[in-house]
Design a protein that fits this description.
4 strands; binds zinc ion; globular; 4-stranded antiparallel sheet; mainly beta
């Protein structure tokens, strides 16, 4: 479970990208924190990066396929 201290740094969003799931190696449309909804592992992805390949995050036999879902999206400021 992702943690935070100051709720003022987060804003609720209902954007559809939070509902999508991604496979290992997929290019992510949004930088931020992704959670594997099968095992609970969480990772941070920078802008323009891809999700880790299958061999970086492995499930024990029988657990099922890795499925990443965006849980916190980082937003760039236009300075
Ligand atoms: Zn997993």
């Amino acid at each position: 479970m992702a943690l935070y201290k100051n709720a003022n740094f987060l804003k609720h969003s209902t954007h559809a990208n939070f509902d999508k799931t991604y496979s290992p190696g997929d290019t992510t449309p949004d930088p931020g924190i992704y959670k594997c909804i099968v095992c609970g592992d969480e990772i941070g992805i920078a802008k323009g990066h891809t999700l880790p390949p299958q061999n970086h995050h492995q499930h024990r036999p029988g657990l099922g396929s890795i499925k990443w879902q965006l849980i916190v999206c980082s937003v760039s400021a236009s300075c």
